[in-house]
Amino acid sequence: MPAPSRPRHDATDDWQQLDLLVQFPEQRTCELIRPVVLFGLSPAERACQTGTPARTLSRQAARFAHEGMASLFASPRPAPKEPHFFLDPAIRDAILSLKAEHAALNTHELTTICWIRFGHRPSARTCGRIMALNRKLYGLGRPARTPREPKVMPYGIPETLVSDSGAVFVTAKQAKAVYAALGIEKREIERRQPWQNSIKTCFNVQRRMANWDFAKATTWAKLLAVHDQWVVDYNYQRHWAHQQRADDRRSPRDVLGWVSGREIAPEELHRIFYRTRFGRVLDKLGYVRFRHWRVYGERGLAGDHAAVWLYGETLTIAFADEPLARYRVRYQPDKQQLRTVEEPYLFETPYRAAQLPLWEWNETEWLKMLPVAPYTTRRRRSAGPEQQPLFTDILPREASG
Description:
With 401 residues, this protein is of the alpha+beta class.
């Protein structure tokens, strides 16, 4: 009689012993759900016996009842599909030909041209995939990027600025200083006549075109990307107000693209606008001290230099050109010192401290703005009376030779 090929063990229902005997994951799954499927044991009772979550046992038993023994084996993963571009061939050819003729065009400009020509706007990612596939088919390399020289204010300084009679435009000292330094003529429209300012129409178009995308932006970087996309769309798309023009100019770029103002050096522009910028260092708790107030910026940047921008009634703390916090301020009668700092708003930034608070602080526990006493002038210490020796009859002995 031949020797048994497998060692013999006593029959048992103890899961601790069964778990030691099984060799394959499929066999283990079968032993796990066998009492549930054959004897009607509840998944909760089997979970107490095996230590497996009851939801896992219930899901595996239901799958076994639906698929049978095939449910014990992992289904093979399907092979990744090749990308398919369900795009009109005419649009694809137009993208490739435009890129070949005008290599400087970016993907956003290509999508805008396609929308104007064909009434369909492919995504920027689709344009990138089409160009990448074309390079792969013909063995082409990426076009070399030519360094561009920095431009000095591409649209220049306007001659006249038209606005309403808001204090931020008319009576603010900072605005008046900027107008005078840049040589801008300031004009106001009549009260309660917003139609006299053409920028009102631009704001309405922006509200209709981009408010949906702006509402979905959750970070400052996404908000900047949405704004850049809106600028391209607004300048390159056809506007209804230009449909009847005889010169066949339909978009704002075609109508006003050639208009430019007076140029100014970046150094001079930096000097003019940075009059309202103040440098501060964040303390160990993330606060900056500004005009007898401690204002919170970001605890994760403790010890770093931050910029404090004060414009009108808005105070903004920024780091590396990214806003950290914004506050509303009210001035003392001297228009210099701050009477109140209120309405704090903290931006989502990548500089958040790694050590999170133990619990969520409410508005009463976390004071983001605190008034502090002004610095006191240090008094110069006056020379006091000289201390007289206690024993005048004791003289120092001369050193013996």
